[in-house]
Amino acid sequence: MTPDTLEIRLRHLGFPTQRGRASAIRRLVLQAPAPVVARMLGYHDDTTAQLAAEAGGTWKRYAPGDHAR
After folding, report:
1. Which of these, 1, 58, 3, lies nearest to 32 by C-alpha position?
2. For the CA atoms of 46, 49, 55, 56, what is the dihedral angle to 10 degrees?
3. What residues contact 49, with CB distance under 8 A and at least 6 apart?
4. C-alpha to C-alpha distance for 58 and 53, rounded to whole angstroms
5. What is residue 44's three-state secondary structure?
6. Cα 23 to Cα 18, 31, 51, 68, distances in angstroms
7. Which of 22, 43, 57, 60 could disulfide-pair with 52, CB 3.0 to 4.6 Å?
8. Are 47 and 18 in contact (CB under 8 A)?
9. Nearest CA-CA partner of 57 in 33, 36, 23, 40
10. C-alpha–C-alpha distance, residues 10 and 41, integer Å
11. Which residues neighbour 27 within 8 Å (Cβ) at sequence distance 6 or greater?
12. How many CA atoms lie within 13 A of 7 on its CB side?
């Protein structure tokens, strides 16, 4: 079963898939920086940054990138 197929079935059963997804991402961006969540889930950084701002996230000063220097 693909994510698309699962989403169609859930919608057919009356589950609001978009609101649930956004809610779950808002919870994640409160626990981790938005760019990290974006890369884990395959979202654009701007999308997760916007959800983080809406959720009141505290990772605003996080600098993404390689910090191994």
Report:
1. 58
2. -140
3. 34, 35, 38
4. 9
5. coil
6. 9, 13, 9, 32
7. 57
8. no
9. 33
10. 20
11. 55
12. 8
Burial class from Cβ neighbours inside 10 Å (0-12, 13-18, 19+) for residue 59 reads middle
Kindly give the residue spans of alpha helices, DSSP state H, lying in the chain: 3-12, 17-31, 34-41, 45-55
d(CA 66, CA 52): 22
Q: What is the pLDDT along the chain (69 residues), one digit of tens a residue?
A: 787 888 888 889 988 777 777 888 888 988 888 888 888 888 888 888 888 888 887 776 666 666 666
Q: Looking at the chain, how many residues does it have?
A: 69
Q: Which residue has the tokens 């996080």?
A: 62
Residue 13: Cβ within 10 Å count: 7
